[in-house]
Specification:
Helix content of chain A: 55-70%
Distance between the termini of chain B: 114 Å
Distance between the termini of chain A: 41 Å
Helix content of chain B: over 70%
Structural class of chain A: mainly alpha
Number of strands of chain A: 0
Oligomer: heterodimer
Shape of chain B: elongated
Largest sheet of chain B: none
Order of helices and strands of chain B: HHHHHH
Number of helices of chain A: 11
Number of strands of chain B: 0
Strand content of chain A: under 5%
Number of helices of chain B: 6
Strand content of chain B: under 5%
Amino acid sequence: MPVADAELVGRAVGGDGEAFRQLVERYQRPVYGLLLRMVRDPALAEDLAQDALIKAYRALATFDRRRQFSSWLFKIAHNTAIDHLRRFRPPSVPLETPDDERRDPLAVLAAPQHESPEARAAGGDLAQALEAAVRRLRPEYREVVLLRFQQGFSYDEIAEILELPLGTVKTHLHRARKQMAEFLAAGGWGPEGRG
Amino acid sequence: MARKLKRSVERWLEAERRGAVEAAEAALRGVFRQLPLPAPAAGFAARVMAGVGLARRAAPQPALGWRVAIGGAIVVAAAAAALAPAVASDLLARLSPAAVVGFVVGGLVETCQRLAEGLAFWQIMLAIGRALGSVLTSPPAMAALATALLLSAGGVRLLHGLMVMEKSR
C-alpha cells in the first residue's frame, strides 16, 4: 500500500532523504507532463520540473500538511514556468503574432508554429489531433484543461493552483472544452467524421 | 487502443452536443487517460536529489587502517605470486629420486636410534626391578613385610573403633 503524501512530507521534513525521493518519483511524471504540454520543449520542461521540485523541497517545512501536497506542488510548478517564461521572453514580438501570444508568456513557446514537420505529418492520428487541439487552446485554457483532465484536480484545487477565482476556472474549462470539440470537429473527428 | 480512444472521443463530443456537462467532463477525463503521459529522461530523480544536496552517497570507504592492511595484503599476494614459479622450480629440483631415498633412509635411522635409546632405559629399569625382587623375596624381608601389614591392619581397626565411640557420645 503506497505511503500517503503527508507522511512522506513529514519524514522528508525530518531529514529523511529517501522519503523525498519517493515524492519525486511519484510526481516527476505528472509535473513534467504538465510542463511539457505547457512549454512544448522537453529539455526546458525537464529543467523547469527539476527547479519546481527543488523549490518544493526547500519550502517543504512551510507546507501545511492538512492541504493536498499535489496542489501545492503543481502551484510551484506553474509559478516556476511562468517566472521562467517572463524572464526569458524574447524582447521583441513580431507584429503578426496573435494577440493571445502577446498577452501570455507561455504562448511564445507553446505556439503552433513551433511544431515540428514530423508532428504536423502525424496529424492524422486521433491522439495527435487531440494533442494539437490542446496546443491550439489559449494558454490559460490549456492549463486548466491539463490540470482538470490530465491531472484530475477539482475546480477548487485548480483555482488554488492558478490563483484564479473559482468562476473563472469554470468559465475557462467550459470554453476550453467547447473549443477543443470544435477543433476536433473541424479536423473531421467525431461521430460522423473519420473512422 | 485507437478504437477505444475513438469511442471515448465520440462519447465526449456527443455529451458536448447534448450540453451534458458532467458526462462531457467524465468522457474527456477518459480521453486524457488514454493519451500517453510523457516521462522525463532517465536519472531525473537522481538529478533532483543532487540539486537538493541529497544525492545518494557512494558506498562507505574503509577506514585508513583497513585500507593500509588491504593494500599490504595485496602487495604480499602479488609478491607471492611473483615468487611462486621460482620456489616451485626449487622444490622440484630438490625432489630428485636420490633426495627422496636419502630422506626416507635418514628418517628410518633416526627412528631406530630413538628406539635403541628407549631400550637402554628399560634395561636399566629392569635391572633395578630384579635387584629389588631378589631382596624382597628373602625370608626375613617377607617376615618383616607380613609383620608391618598386620600392624597397619590393627592400627586401622583401632582407629575405626575410636571414631565409632566418638560419634555415639
